[in-house]
Write a structure and sequence with these properties.
This protein is 40% helix and 18% strand. The chain is built from 24 helices and 21 strands. Helix 20 (563-570) links the parallel strand 20 (550-555) and strand 21.
């Protein structure tokens, strides 16, 4: 089978199941093979009842001496059975599965596997899976993959489809030069793909993962290297001269810029005035004041007779930037005209906006990726600013830059993701870097606490008090919905729980990445306007809207996130004049996890936290720790895999120095793969 074939051509996947796979972004066999597990389940050998650990998954073998019972109570059907050995008794329970009773035979050896708990003084295992010894031995021969799921599409169906795809798909030709593979002990590509899904043990998993992570970094950095080569030290006809309007705006602000902001603004001005095209990254912690630098740069461009564009990652954020700028300009009598462009605008609104942009009636254009996808013609686009760069990537930055006619525009990239400088230089290799490493003096530091799950009731009471005082709160869960394989809080069930636990007058709503864009925007706007008091969300709010009235963020299963991501989430609060709080609920009893969270508990400095995260991460952290999300790598994590990132950077540079156009015979397969990689990223942008 060709790997580009539709997934429906796999046995057992019809149109209905195919649509469920599409919800996960899986349309072809290749997509399926590149849908890597998010965790793994090790089927350890059965133990005696007395050796079972409470609050964890275990397996026990035995025979039932009495038939299972079916109990009906208040519309609920419960099947129960008892298992005994010399070390104890175990109660087995299955809810809403009456057929289990007739399937279980007395005197037949079974293995039962499930989560163990003590309830009403008895050791219990609820909803255990039932295996024959033969079935269990097959599963214990390798680590079993756990995939991200969606409603109606469980882990078993995905794993079965992957298993079949591995059997019928054709082998890919190796594209990585052999000397690179040998130098860094990287596996063959097809071996890596097969064993990332079904590794025999942790060593084999790490070996497979190392190759795929290297590839992600290497292809990205090769693309970046070729872009840098193409841009070079390009001249720009959009040379600026200092203007009074930008300086008047700066001096009229109700606060003084910090020294770090002043330094950054001086660097941006110098770039825009010297005649070469600016390519600069502004890295600054959440709340450090990057946006005002962007506004000053947009005013400088407009005052020089040019246009500037600011691209934000969400409609809500774009709208907020727009409304904030209109208000700021009106108050300070600045004549420049901003205009908003988003995908949800009506056809008439878009047409009027396009005309204003093309005829230069608009000086500053603010929007989402609609700025590059729509048929917009700019008059003199001299400045391109992207907010939260890692949500866009190199392709989008280049695409927006390509909208400028006549000359290369200045490019300014803003990111609130604290990345240690050594890694930032690699990831943003085509950009100069400015760091805003000070917070404004009027910001109150966020008060942090790391608590166990027994603290929840007190946390709910605290949230209720804050809401009674007119404030708002976020509650973050790692999952959208309940998973059959992963023990973690999920948004949908948690929302129902909070509606019961909090006073009835409090409006609780949820937000997650699987919702349609329009729905997400409506929820965020209602939260920003104060109509929703408590928002239960996944990390989709990590790059969100500015809600100064939100003073509490409670993060469930904090142990499942990396420190840098927890810090990003924490940055959703502490944006106004009120004291803010971050409650991190640690659902793990692991000592190393507690140490990691304590770093966050005692510091609000994102760059310090990122560097500590880098020191703490090790190969074992690929299990259960959420990826940092940086640049949307599928497997790679810039913290866990920092050393591999550095190696991939060296190899990409060396290879491009040797063969810039990848013309050598030994690099033909790599060139083909590079083109496929870049095309896939552009396809996602609909360019």
């Amino acid at each position: 089978m060709m790997n580009g074939q539709p997934i429906e051509e796999l046995k057992g996947i019809g149109v209905k199941t195919g649509k469920l796979f599409q919800k996960l972004g899986i349309e072809t066999v290749t997509d399926l093979l590149q849908y890597y597990p998010r965790n793994y389940d090790a089927f350890h050998a059965p133990v005696s009842i007395g050796q079972l650990n409470q609050q964890s998954v275990g397996a026990v073998s035995g025979v039932l001496m009495k038939p299972a019972e079916l109990i009906r109570h208040n519309g609920m059907q419960l099947v129960t059975a008892q298992l005994k050995d010399l070390t104890g008794t175990l109660q087995l329970s299955w809810y809403h599965m009456p057929y289990i009773r007739s399937n279980l035979k007395t005197g037949v050896p079974y293995i039962f596997r499930g989560r163990v708990a003590r309830k009403h003084g008895r050791l219990t295992m609820e909803q255990p899976e039932i295996y024959t010894w033969e079935e269990f031995e097959t599963l214990s021969a390798s680590l079993q993959p756990i995939y991200g799921q969606t409603k109606g599409l469980g882990n078993k169906t995905i794993a079965k489809a992957v298993s079949q795809a591995l059997k019928v798909s054709k082998l890919e030709r190796e594209y990585l030069p052999e000397e690179i593979r040998k130098r860094h002990q990287l596996s063959e590509y097809n071996f890596a793909v097969a064993h990332i899904h079904y590794p025999k043990d942790e060593n084999q998993l790490l070996f497979a993962r190392k190759r795929l992570v290297f590839d992600e970094f290497f292809l990205f950095l090769m693309g970046l290297g070729r872009l840098k080569e193409k841009r070079g030290d390009q001249k720009s006809l959009f040379s600026m001269v200092a203007c009074q309007e930008a300086e008047k705006l700066k001096t009229s602000l109700p606060y003084r810029l910090t020294d770090a902001q002043e330094r950054t603004w001086a660097e941006v001005k110098a770039d825009m005035q010297e005649g070469s095209a600016m390519n600069r990254l502004i890295q600054g912690d959440v709340g450090s004041g990057k946006t005002i630098i962007a506004i000053l740069a947009l005013v400088l461009a407009a005052e020089n007779g040019y246009q500037g564009a600011l691209m934000a990652p969400t409609e809500v954020l774009a709208k907020q930037h727009y409304e904030g700028m209109v208000s700021l300009f009106r108050e300070r009598k600045i004549s420049k005209i901003p205009i908003l462009v988003t995908g949800s605008m009506t056809a008439k609104e878009k047409r009027l906006a396009y005309e204003a942009i093309e005829n230069h009636k608009a000086d500053i254009i603010i929007g989402t990726h609609a700025l590059i996808q729509e048929k917009i013609r700019y008059d003199k686009l001299a400045l391109v600013i992207t907010d939260e760069q890692h949500r866009f990537g190199v392709g989008q930055r280049e695409a927006l830059g390509g909208k400028s006619s006549g000359s290369v525009p200045h490019v300014l990239v803003m990111s609130a993701t604290p990345i240690p400088r050594t890694l930032a230089i690699i990831l943003y290799g085509d950009l100069d870097i400015s760091v805003i490493d000070q917070l404004p003096a009027n910001r109150l530091p966020i008060k942090n606490c790391v608590v166990g799950i027994d603290y929840r009731k007190r946390a709910y009471d605290f949230i209720a008090k804050q809401v009674a005082g007119g404030r708002q709160a976020y509650v973050i869960c790692p999952m959208v919905e309940e998973s059959e394989m992963i023990e973690a809080e999920n948004v949908l069930d948690y929302t129902k729980l909070l509606k019961k636990e909090l006073p009835s007058g409090i409006q609780v709503e949820y937000l997650h990445g699987k919702m349609k864009g329009k729905e997400k925007n409506q929820v965020m706007e209602r939260f920003a306007q104060g109509e929703i008091q408590v928002l239960v969300s996944t990390t989709v709010i990590e790059v969100g809207v500015n809600v100064p009235n939100a003073t509490v963020i409670m993060i469930e299963n904090a142990e499942r996130f990396g420190l840098a991501q927890l810090h990003q989430l924490r940055g959703r609060v502490g944006r106004g004049k009120y004291q803010s709080y971050c409650i991190m609920v640690n659902g793990s009893e692991d000592e190393d996890t507690s140490k990691r969270l304590e770093i966050l508990n005692h510091s609000n400095d994102g760059f310090y936290i990122a560097s500590e995260d880098l020191k703490l991460r090790g190969p074992g952290d690929i299990f259960g720790i959420r990826q940092s999300g940086e640049l949307e790598f599928k497997l790679a994590d810039i913290f866990t895999d920092a050393n591999l990132l550095k190696i991939a950077s060296q190899e990409a540079k060396q290879l491009l120095d040797q063969d810039p156009e990848l013309e050598m015979e030994a690099h033909k397969e790599l060139k083909k793969r590079m083109e496929e990689y870049l095309q896939s990223r552009y396809d996602k942008l609909n360019l």
